Amino acid sequence: MKNFLACVLTAALLSAPVQAQQIQPIDGIAVVVDEDVILQSELDRAVANIRAQYADRTQQLPPPEVLERQVAERLVLLQLQVARAEATGVRATDQEVDQAIAAIAAQNQVSVEQLRAQLAADGSSPDQFRDSIRDELLVQRLRQRFAQTQISVSDAEVDAALESQQAGGEQFHLAHILVALPEAATPEQIATGKTKIEGIKSLLERGEMNFAAAAVRYSDSPNALEGGDLGWRAANEIPAAFAELVRGMQPGQVTDPIRGPSGFQLLQLVETRDAAQAGPSNVTQFQASHILIRIDENTSAEQAQAEAATLHARIVGGADFAELAREHSEDPSSQSKGGDLGWFTQDEFGPDFGGQIAALADGEVSAPFRTQAGWHIVKRTGVRQADVGDDNRRAQVRETIGRRKLEDEWNRFLRELRGEAYVDYRNDADPQATPDAAPTAEPPATPPADGG
């Protein structure tokens, strides 16, 4: 959750919410997305914030019109995910948004008022910031629901990964550049994409740009602005078509263009390591107690929130936490123990719960917050570094495999979501319609302005 909160803050500062119903003077529509729009002012704000992030390395940014298309596509995907979340019943209450904002402020060691002042100085209004946080919460929960329903990891997969680690197998740090092709691409679109990917490879071979900078400038992948980084992968986590190529590469080497389901790719091997060195032998564990008020057919969300708020007020007033947990908590596994949950890792009870724990100091009690289980009050009592035993090691490996699967399936879901949507770029061509032709196979020393 700590990392998630940092990402939320970054996303909130980079992206502005869609305000299709507001009347804004001298503003235009940049993109129509299904029945909603992205305003030019929103796009301009998001582009400006990306430029601010790259203030000390502006040479890595693509030409202005290419950067605008990359950022616009991110806003389109965000809007489509928010719409899907809302259509499937995913919600984020005002209370939850307030809690996320408070956690972001605490993470950045400022008060909520100071955070608002900083946002105002950066040109973001409180309403825009709240809407961006709400959107990020909705997308996070949509992704969690997707993971719960679409992703499974078998014991056999865990066993194979553990055997690979024990055998000292290699892991590979990869990056990629994607030249996307639309569904049912025409021969002309395929030829254009092939010319572009060959031009990028030629540019890299001549040393005119490093791989990360080329990814930022030319890749159509959602992680383009992160330099195309794919992170660490074990051999069994790499598609079979790529695995043999990667095994024969040296760090820093780049493949020839590869045609895949999404388009043409260049794959770089950044570095390698032994699986035995893949992670720390210790994990951070927290000790805490909690009070849970469930939401069910007899207790509405509002009633559960009100009861949690009353109990929190009593705790602040000096009531004993453990005694209140025994009297009021609806978690049968911890109620008789005064709410004691023992020692657990941050994500063991879900990212929402874990984030609240991580943001607390030892002895501190949280404000009431909501998860899928209901409304909680948590008291953190300790933190430690614990040796990873067999059970924890299996859980860690299972989580790693699940995360890789989720990444692949989620990206496929986003491609389908984008492909099914009506998206009309008013000031530019749809970036998915036809890949940019530049750079060509023999690009000039300075790539042309439409080099995205």
TrEMBL record:
Gene3D superfamilies referenced in this protein's UniProt entry, alphabetically: 3.10.50.40, Porin chaperone SurA, peptide-binding domain
InterPro entries: OMP_Chaperone_SurA (IPR050280), PPIase_dom_sf (IPR046357), PPIase_PpiC (IPR000297), PPIase_PpiC_CS (IPR023058), PPIase_SurA (IPR023034), SurA_N (IPR015391), Trigger_fact/SurA_dom_sf (IPR027304)
Record-level Gene Ontology MF annotations: peptidyl-prolyl cis-trans isomerase activity
Biased composition (Pro residues): 441-452
Ranges for domain PpiC: 169-271, 283-382
Subcellular location: Periplasm
Keyword Chaperone: yes
Catalysed reaction, written as an equation: [protein]-peptidylproline (omega=180) = [protein]-peptidylproline (omega=0)
E.C. code: 5.2.1.8
Endpoints of the signal sequence: 1-20
Residue segments, region Disordered: 326-346, 425-452
Lineage: superkingdom: Bacteria
Keywords: Chaperone, Isomerase, Periplasm, Repeat, Rotamase, Signal
SUPFAM superfamilies to which the protein is assigned, alphabetical: FKBP-like, Triger factor/SurA peptide-binding domain-like
Biased composition (Low complexity): 430-440
Biological role stated in the UniProt entry: Chaperone involved in the correct folding and assembly of outer membrane proteins. Recognizes specific patterns of aromatic residues and the orientation of their side chains, which are found more frequently in integral outer membrane proteins. May act in both early periplasmic and late outer membrane-associated steps of protein maturation.
Domain notes: The PPIase activity resides only in the second parvulin domain. The N-terminal region and the C-terminal tail are necessary and sufficient for the chaperone activity of SurA. The PPIase activity is dispensable for SurA to function as a chaperone. The N-terminal region and the C-terminal tail are also required for porin recognition.
Protein's UniProt name: Chaperone SurA
Organism lineage string: Bacteria, Pseudomonadati, Pseudomonadota, Gammaproteobacteria, Lysobacterales
